[in-house]
Design a protein that fits this description.
The protein has 292 residues and is α/β, with parallel strands linked by helices. It has one domain (2-278): 4-Layer Sandwich (Metallo-beta-lactamase, Chain A). The protein is built from 6 helices and 14 strands. It has helices at residues 47-54, 104-107, 132-137, 184-191, 219-228, 245-261; strands at residues 2-7, 28-32, 38-41, 61-64, 88-92, 124-128, 142-147, 155-161, 164-169, 196-200, 233-237, 267-270, 276-280, 288-291. The chain has an 8-stranded mixed β-sheet. Helix 6 (245-261) links the parallel strand 11 and strand 12.
Length: 292
């Protein structure tokens, strides 16, 4: 499994000199499975650059959408494969029986908010509202999902590939003031033993209490989850748009000290555009992890 980060910011794109190293594009992660199949996690502005690479292939594209907020969908109209005739793109939306929304990726391509209409696209783009687990299993893709704690709802995903695994949990508040969709103990079990945990960590203690209830987690809470769930590596994701590169560097140093001081086996990284994590299966052993 190869995981590549194309957009790591939350809320709004944040280009500029203070965010150049970690990147200013919004949420998009590409997962290339061992058999060559592709999964895309979210379609923020980072998906535009990914689309240039995928346009050179003709493989089926599967997009798992965490939820329909703008920073997770706004890159889709600029995703080059949607303009390729007969290109099969399957979008698994977060909409369910509790939400009246249609597929947010297609709704924005309406001729008014964007000059092209979704119905005029030459690709074979499908919006699928059913649970992707059974549908993707037909292609030998193993995915589980669980509800996030976030205003408007949505889903997190766990992906298994042979003996390696990753979890993608963005826009999730581990200790919200509103009714829980998923408890902390359930999160621990969902993440149990994954080789890579990608988790929203937009806020610091200094952001509270003003932003309590906004649907995002504290860095300290996510570190604890990684330890309790015994994950291999933690990747902090969905950086606040006002968080500078130097401030994220400080978070990275704090992470290293935290895991060192408690003698935890977990390692931690702050996601940056272009970061690649290569998980290699090892029978009866821990997965081999390469970071570029």
């Amino acid at each position: 499994m190869k995981i590549t980060f194309y957009g790591v910011r939350g809320s709004i794109p944040s280009p500029g000199p203070d965010t150049a190293r970690y990147g200013g594009n919004t949420s998009c992660v590409h997962v290339a499975l061992g058999d060559g199949q592709n999964l895309i996690l979210d379609a923020g502005t980072g998906i535009r650059e990914l689309g240039k690479k995928l346009a050179e292939t003709d493989d089926t594209i599967n997009i798992l959408l965490s939820h329909g907020h703008w920073d997770h969908i706004q890159g889709y109209p600029f995703f080059q494969p949607i303009y390729q005739p007969d290109r099969l793109i399957r979008v698994y939306t977060s909409a369910d029986e509790n939400h009246g929304q249609l597929c947010a990726l297609f709704d924005q391509i309406d001729g008014a908010n964007f000059p092209v209409k979704a119905g005029d696209l030459p690709s074979r783009s499908k919006c699928i509202m059913d649970d992707p687990s059974s549908l993707l299993m037909a292609d030998n893709i193993q995915v589980q999902r669980i509800r996030i704690n976030h205003p408007g709802g949505g889903y997190a995903y766990r992906i298994e590939d042979d003996t390696v695994s990753c979890a993608f949990i963005t826009d999730n508040e581990l200790d919200p003031p509103y009714e829980l969709s998923t408890t902390y103990d359930q999160w621990v079990e969902f993440c149990r033993g994954v080789d890579v945990l990608i988790h929203d960590a937009q806020y610091l203690e200094s952001d509270m209490p003003h932003k309590h209830g906004w649907g995002h987690s504290l860095v300290s809470q996510v570190r604890k989850l990684a330890v309790d769930a015994e994950v291999g590596s933690l990747v902090l994701f969905h950086h606040d748009p006002d968080r500078s590169d130097s401030e994220i560097d400080s978070i990275q140093r704090e992470n290293e000290n935290y895991f060192r001081n408690i003698h935890a086996p977990s390692r931690s990284l702050c996601a940056a555009e272009g970061l690649q994590i290569h998980l290699k299966s090892r029978k009866n052993q821990l997965a081999s992890l390469e970071v570029n």
